[in-house]
Amino acid sequence: MLTIGQAASYLGVSLNTLRRWDESGKLTAVRKDGGTHRYYREKDLEVFASDLVKLARDWTNEGFELLAMFYCANSAVFQARLIKMQDALVKSSLSLNLLSLIVAVAGEIGNNSFDHNLGKWPDIPGVFFGYDIIKRQVVLADRGLGILSTLGRVRPSLKTHVDALRVAFTEIVSGRAPEERGNGLKFVRRVIAENPVSLFFRSGDAELRLKKDSGELIITRSPIDTRGCFAVIEY
Amino acid sequence: MRVELKKFGTTLISRQSGKEALAAFQSTITDIAPREIIEIDFDGVITFSPSWGDEFLTALLNKFGDRLVLLPTDNPSVRITIKLLEEINKKSFGLKLQQQRE
Fold this sequence. Notes:
The complex is a heterodimer of chains A (about 240) and B (about 100).
Chain A: E1 2-3, H1 4-11, H2 15-24, E2 39-40, H3 42-50, H4 52-62, E3 71-72, H5 75-91, H6 96-117, E4 127-132, E5 137-142, H7 147-151, H8 161-170, H9 184-194, E6 198-210, E7 217-234
Antiparallel strand pairs in A: 1-2, 3-4, 4-5, 5-7, 6-7
Chain B: E1 2-4, E2 11-12, H1 15-29, E3 38-41, E4 47-48, H2 50-64, E5 68-70, H3 76-89, H4 95-101
Helix pairs in contact in B: 1-2, 2-3
């Protein structure tokens, strides 16, 4: 069993956060023989930290504190962790061709968050970036302005999140002013069209699904309104 | 002149690092003779993306035009990026990569 201090250090959050999460039931502590001190089973912490989709969603939608191990406050931290993921993938059984595409897709989505929100973050800067080599999953999220707002600067006629996602993933946006656009999401779509990779992407009240080995683009209204962008890559 | 991209790193993905690579390469550009061919060698690069490529390769393409030649590579992140950059810029890169792709 870990003490609350050890658990806080393991997850990279404060003691007060753990106390709050215990009271709300988000992460319940164990008490020994009716005592008042909080303890944690290491296995419980592992399970808690392994649900990347839930952790990222809770952060973007509800502003829950983020575990330090998944938080990239700036682009430099993101680049370093992306290279770490690449190193981990190189050591796994994944082919070099597929891993180069997974890293490039994650890099384009994460860098998009920084490129379009730098100096404009509404509250918390940075991205959530987590990956699970066993589950073959990468999760990225930000609390930025979202695709409609950032793309709207070069395409003022865009009115809905659904339209914004469609343009972001399909149309080459040429005008370089007022900001540079890397057309990275078009790259993401092309990679998925030809490879065993799938993507779920949500921004505002729109969500997009790209299925592996398919160029088909499925965009629908989402029941959840997402702050910024939220992406799950599976391979 | 042959430019080995791996000397800039094996993970070439962000605009920022693409800009830094181009800035570092500026000092070499002054040594290039007027008709010299500039070959881009992707050997050793693991991951490549449009953000980095747009900052570095598009800038070199605009400066050197036909004198810029991309050497063949099987890396799919390079190949998909190059094709996309050509469509975005409505310009083709030098021949070697294209011959292999066709």
